[in-house]
Structure formats: structure tokens, C-alpha cells
């Protein structure tokens, strides 16, 4: 049990990488608060976890991550329920594929608001709690596009470059408070959207990946477990690629 007794918050925990991370944390002995965007999806995720194991110590909330007051109050609910917060995983995120000439500023702002501003808001709130507790771990979901960019939807890689910048900067700022800050940069991961792609679309992508498969959400979750655990106690400011050595 790598996370025995730890209390974790996972944003975007209702499906995909976030859900796999919630499950992996629970399996490793953590108590978890999963955050989702809507009450209904949070309820479905909790029911699914309950079917896996009725004893999992897990709660679900749906604060607006872009509203500092709602985030503060949600974190307080977690502290009231579990006593403290040791680990925050900033995982909620959206992607966009618009070409620059069709890209409007509202869409660009929307992606920056969730993928960057919400990470700042949640990290600030968590860091304040963790500093008072004597330490903690903040983890961010970046992306392989934060290394290479992508040929359309410039807002998405821009947001993930910003996540890397925040990760490295907060690691340097918060180290003295015993707060470690790291990110995982997934490659192509088999979430619902990727799983639904037809063979003729996915196979050419797989052919370019040295490990010759797309990643599973559990591959990313395992990296989060390691980085959240005391096994990574001297690791901070790192962007860990989990991408099968995908090059672009
Ligand atoms: P997903 O769409 O399956 O899940 C996204 C999660 O974010 C959901 O739980 C959803 O509720 C939450 N979310 C979306 N909009 C929200 C909002 N406005 N407020 C609060 N929560 C919101 O996606 P995923 O593929 O599991 O992605 C999770 C993270 O991984 C994202 O940050 C994404 O950028 C990153 N990522 C995914 C891949 C991939 O191939 N799937 C690759 C690299 C990085």
C-alpha cells in the first residue's frame, strides 16, 4: 500500500485518466475526493467505484474549478470529511483542434481558464492547506504536446506548456514547505474518445509509437501513484512522460 492513510483530491476524476487515478489511489490505501464537472457524472463515477468495492473511502464533489470561492469551499468539505489533504491531482482538462484562422478568442480563453487558471486556483488552495499541515504533493496532468506542440488547436499545447511552467516554478517555490510538485505528460491514452476510433485511424498512429500500443489510463495512474508516494520523496519539478516514447 503506497498511499496508506493519505488523503487525495483528483479533479476530472469521473472518467478517463482521472477515474483510473482515483481507483489506483483507493487500491493503494488512500481516501479520495473526486471532483467532476456535473453532479450527474460524479454520481455515476461514485456508483461505479461502489460496485468495485463498497468499502472504498471516496466522496464526490462538483465545484466550478475556475471559481476560487467554490474551490475553497470544496476543499474545506474534503478536510471536514477526511481531516486534511495530502495529495492534489490537477487532471481536469479539455482539448481543442481548431485551425488558427477559425479559432476565436472565446474558445482560447475557455481552454486557458480550465487547463491553466483552474490549476493555479486549486494549487494555491491546496498549497495553503499543505503548508499549514507540514507538506504535501501537487501533481498535474500535462501532455506530450507540451513538448512538441501540435499542428492545430494551438490553445491546447499552449495550456500544457503553461502547466509545465507552473509545475517547475511551484516546485521551486514550495520545496521549502515540503510540498513536491510534479507533472505527468501522457501520450495517446485509450480514454473513451480514443477507444471509439476505428482501426484504420488508430493503427497508423500506433505504428509511429515505439512501444507499438496506445497507453491505458492505468499507465498514467501508475505514474501518479509513484509520484504521490514517499518513493518519490526526492523528486520535484519533473515532467514525467508516459507516452511509449512517442515523438510527435
Ligand atoms: P476525459 O474527457 O475522459 O476526462 C476529462 C475529465 O475532466 C472529466 O472527468 C471531466 O468531468 C473533467 N472536466 C472537463 N471539463 C471540466 C470542467 N469545465 N470543469 C471540471 N471538470 C471538467 O479526458 P482524459 O483524456 O481522461 O483527460 C484527462 C487529462 O489528461 C486532461 O488534462 C487531458 O488534457 C490530459 N491528457 C489526455 C490524453 C489522452 O490521450 N486522453 C493525452 C494527454 C493528456
From TrEMBL:
GO biological process terms held by the UniProt record: bile acid metabolic process
Keywords: Oxidoreductase
Gene3D superfamilies documented for this protein: NAD(P)-binding Rossmann-like Domain
InterPro entries for this protein: NAD(P)-bd_dom_sf, Sc_DH/Rdtase_CS, SDR_fam
Database matches in SUPFAM superfamilies: NAD(P)-binding Rossmann-fold domains (SSF51735)
A Gene Ontology molecular function term of the record: oxidoreductase activity, acting on the CH-OH group of donors, NAD or NADP as acceptor
UniProt entry tagged with the keyword Transcription regulation: no
Family according to the record: Belongs to the short-chain dehydrogenases/reductases (SDR) family.
Name of the protein: 7-alpha-hydroxysteroid dehydrogenase
Amino acid at each position: 500500500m503506497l498511499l496508506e492513510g493519505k488523503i487525495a483530491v483528483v479533479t476530472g476524476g469521473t472518467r478517463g485518466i482521472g477515474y483510473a487515478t482515483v481507483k489506483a489511489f483507493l487500491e493503494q490505501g488512500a481516501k479520495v475526493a473526486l471532483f467532476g464537472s456535473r453532479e450527474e457524472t460524479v454520481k455515476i463515477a461514485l456508483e461505479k467505484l461502489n460496485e468495485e468495492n463498497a468499502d472504498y473511502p471516496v466522496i464526490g464533489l462538483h465545484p466550478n474549478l475556475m471559481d476560487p470561492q467554490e474551490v475553497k469551499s470544496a476543499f474545506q468539505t474534503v478536510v471536514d470529511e477526511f481531516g486534511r489533504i495530502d495529495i492534489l491531482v490537477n487532471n481536469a482538462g479539455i482539448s481543442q483542434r481548431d485551425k488558427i484562422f477559425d479559432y476565436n478568442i472565446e474558445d482560447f480563453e475557455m481552454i486557458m481558464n480550465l487547463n491553466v487558471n483552474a490549476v493555479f486556483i486549486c494549487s494555491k488552495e491546496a498549497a495553503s492547506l499543505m503548508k499549514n499541515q507540514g507538506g504535501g504533493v501537487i501533481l498535474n496532468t500535462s501532455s506530450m504536446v507540451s513538448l512538441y506542440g501540435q499542428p492545430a488547436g494551438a490553445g491546447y499545447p499552449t495550456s500544457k506548456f503553461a502547466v509545465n511552467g507552473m509545475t517547475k516554478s511551484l516546485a521551486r517555490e514550495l520545496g521549502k514547505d515540503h510540498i513536491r510538485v510534479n507533472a505527468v505528460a501522457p501520450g495517446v491514452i485509450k480514454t473513451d474518445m480514443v477507444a471509439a476510433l476505428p482501426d484504420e485511424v488508430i493503427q497508423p498512429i500506433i505504428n509511429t509509437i515505439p512501444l507499438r500500443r496506445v497507453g491505458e489510463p492505468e499507465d498514467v495512474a501508475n505514474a501518479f501513484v509513484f509520484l504521490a508516494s514517499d518513493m518519490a520523496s526526492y523528486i520535484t519539478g519533473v515532467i514525467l512522460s508516459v507516452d511509449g516514447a512517442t515523438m510527435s
